[in-house]
Amino acid sequence: MPRRRQSADSRAVSFEVVEDLDDELVPPGASAEAAAVDGSPPAGDVGNGAGEGADVAPRRLGEPASGVGDAPSGGRAIRWKPWTAAAGVLALVVCGLAIGGEIEERRTASRLVASEGGVLPFTGPPRELWSLDLSDRVWMPSGGLLLGQVGVEGLTAVDVLSGNEVWQAVVGPNAICGRSGTWQTFVQEAGPLLCLSGTADAMVVSVLGPEGQVTASRDLGPVDEGSSYAVGPGATVVHVRRDGPVGPPVGPREIYDENGDPTLVDVPGGRGVVVTLQDAVSGDVLWENRVPFVAPDEAWKCQVFSDTPEAELELDKVSSRTTGYVVSVDGCGINAAFDADGTRLDDVTSHDDQVEPLTATTVNRFDWTTQHTTVLDRTGTSLWDVTGPVLRPTATDGTGEDVVVVDTLSGLAAFRPDGTELWDASTYASTLFVHTSAVMVVDDGANGLTAIDPATGRTLWTVPGEDSVYPFGAATDGSQAVVLAHDAGGSARAVGYDLTTGEVLWSGASTESMGLVGYHGALLELSENRVSRVG
Question: pLDDT tens, 112-122?
Answer without folding.
Answer: 988 889 999 99
